Amino acid sequence: MRVPRIFMDMNTPGVGAWEGSPMNDGARARVLTWLAIAGIGSSILIMIVLSLLRDGWQRPPIVLPAWGPPWDLPPTHVSLGTASLALWIAVAVGTGGMVAGLAAIAHGARPSPTWLLIIAGIVVAVLTVLPPTGSTDAFDYAAYGRIMVLGHSPYLMAPYHLRRVHDVLAGSVPTSWQRMVSVYGPLATVEQFLAAKLGGASAARITFWLKLWNSAAFALVALAADRLLRADPARRLRAHLLWTLNPLLLWDVVAAGHLDVLAAAVGLLGLLALRWQPESGPPPLPRALTSGALIGVAADIKANYVLFGLGVAWALRRWPASLAAAAGAALTVAVPGYAWFGIPALRAVFSRRNQASAGSFYDLLAAPQSYLALIAAALVIAVAVLALRRMPAGIPDLPAVRPALAASIAWLLLWPYQYPWYATMIICLLIFYPASRLDWLVLAPVAVGTITAPLGIAEAQLGSAADLIHRFSVSVLSPVVLLAAAAGLVALCLSGRWKPGEPGPGQSPRPARPSSPRTAG
């Protein structure tokens, strides 16, 4: 039985030998390709079913509009324990499918990128027209937008007040964060205001607009990767596995509707805009200005994307005039929003500085709460500097990607307040970076975080068995995996063994193994 041609190019060298030969690269590629198809496909299917049945297991309730999206199936009771088990299975098989797919590419498999984009486009479209699932954050966004429509500031008025005034959105305000004012940037607030204006009095319609823009940003990153990496088939396919058909991202970003993908897409465009060869001299002024302005937009959506600005600053460090132009463009974009909303918007940036999210490894280390931000900041800076000095070279004409990745991955692994969708900012950079063990250091915490995060905000009680698994995941599995990933990053930096079989600094490379003879077809 042969893999369909859309999934395997049988004319690729090293892939066609199957019959009558031992487990060579072609055989491994074929088996791994089937495993990837099965794992990723079944994971996405489970996620779509969970989204269709969302009203049967997740809160808050949502009243669908009489016509148009979002759509779902009539309410059918599904216990939260059952839904949680289904999600855990989806994450496990989806992550396994991605690992198999990446291994298949390393062994010579060459799926059709066009078909991958088409399949991903269909999946994204389906998840977009279904209600937000797996997180209540999209309903918080809707509440902040509604507050703006009513003429108030979401940095001063919390969603709880919509309940107090019996607003039409009161029934769809999540209880988890109802007393929290917005912690997002001014441009995120503007986006939420526009969605609330378009969605009117319907929380379902408001969240649909929010998801639609998120999905457009997700597709933009996929298309940018497909175009810029088209000359290297292996890197191009790896990018689609890590981003376009990554079940973890599809669930955490597209299905749940988190706005992180907006900042990631704009910030990535800012890094890609600074595309030039540093050896040739300073970049053209329009590129520096465009890069700075786009980074300013990203940071104005979520403050942590200022780390992308550090990547631009490092790439331009030898040309003060270009650096000043980029910084000026970023400030020109970012400052007006904060000036308009005032001190409360600035306070939002620092509101969680001494907080740790569920599953943080700082709980294992018993770090003092009052100094948590200082301790974490020192670790992030130290590891970011180490990573910048020791990480392998990236793509030569994208000099801002590597330093941005070094700063961002240190922040992702070492900052105490993290959720799996925060990794969007890392994965959008990773797809433009050579394959290495960094892939696994990023995917492992995202997979574990995807298992634990939605359960903590589902506003319901799990069954006894699911409760036990969830508590173990949050109190043991998640912090151990996060700590191991952070330690792994430091170990890779010190050893220099970024790829399997790669010698460390000062070591001789291993002799190549003789290839096994292949039988003729």
Describe the structure in brief.
The protein is mostly helical and 521 residues long. It is built from 20 helices and no strands.
What is the averaged pLDDT score? 87
Order of H and E elements: HHHHHHHHHHHHHHHHHHHH
Strand content: under 5%
- Summarize the amount of helix as a percent range: 55-70%
Radius of gyration: 23 Å
Biggest beta-sheet profile: none
Ends distance: 15 Å
Low-confidence stretches: 1-22, 455-460, 512-521
Q: What can you see in these coordinates?
A:
Helices cover 60% and strands 0% of the residues. The protein contains 20 helices and no strands. α1 runs parallel beside α9, α4 packs across α6 and α6 packs across α7. The longest helix has 32 residues, at 464-495.
Provide key terms for this protein:
521 residues, mainly alpha, disordered N terminus, disordered C terminus
What's the SSE blueprint?
Elements: H1 25-52, H2 80-106, H3 113-128, H4 137-149, H5 160-164, H6 186-199, H7 203-228, H8 233-244, H9 247-255, H10 260-273, H11 285-301, H12 306-315, H13 320-341, H14 343-349, H15 362-365, H16 372-390, H17 401-414, H18 424-430, H19 438-456, H20 464-495
